[in-house]
Amino acid sequence: MASVKTPNFPPVRACIFDMDGLLINTEDIYTLCANNVLEKYGRPHLPWPIKAQLMGVPGGSTGDAFHSWAQLPIPREQFNKEQKEQQRIYFPECKPLPGAHKVLRALKVANNTNRAKIHIALATSSNKINYELKASSPETKELLANFDDNRRILWTDPRLEKARGKPAPDIFLLALQSINDSLDEGEAPITPEECLVFEDSVPGVEAGRRAKMRVVWVPHQALVAEYAGKEKLVLAGRIGLVKIGDEWQLGEIDDGWAMKLSSLEGFPYGDFGISV
């Protein structure tokens, strides 16, 4: 099989960040909240093979995959209500993940090798209520303040009214549009290939690839174990957890459009043409 030639990428001009599990430790909190309700009804804790199917997908923590596994003796509506009660307790305790503060602060004042300003945006599957709970933590509030209001895309954003959730590219394309709509006079519109998506979930990586953007995958260590040996498929966006068609949007193995990092600490700015 012929190898795929790595493109000659332009320097990055925009960085688009997921939130849960990438910038803040809320993926572990989602698991804690689900486990507290599962325990109450005598069910086992949420295993990572199931957890991995829920990450990054709007409503994933209460969807068919979860309930088919959980077999709870209560209606979905009751589980949703009790899980939200747990989240109201624990989301305000969330903390930034290692390297998150440093990367966002650096990018806010960075340029690329063509002396162009680096722009940042947030694109999260969290709804407004959950976002506000998470942002009520002082450290998290300070972290998220790095994003301008109009460049902070939540799943309940009216601009996403007819959008599809990840792994569709819609939320990342809207994030890029929000940046382009607010560029300074004289700045040329940013193209998808000049964007770098930061994601922790597998559907999120696929969404970034479908948007024709470069992607950095920063997964939870338990997710790393879950996809051991399949990393190249993840980076190509070809795991296919949620089937949405449009296969032409997907990447190819070893095509150079995505890379995996163990954390945001020590992010290799130079690899993406960014000067800090």
Automatic annotation (TrEMBL):
Pfam families: Hydrolase. GO terms for molecular function: phosphatase activity. Signal peptide: none annotated. It comes from the Eukaryota. PANTHER family: 2-DEOXYGLUCOSE-6-PHOSPHATE PHOSPHATASE 2, SUPERFAMILY HYDROLASE, PUTATIVE-RELATED. This is HAD-like protein. It comes from Hyaloscypha bicolor E.
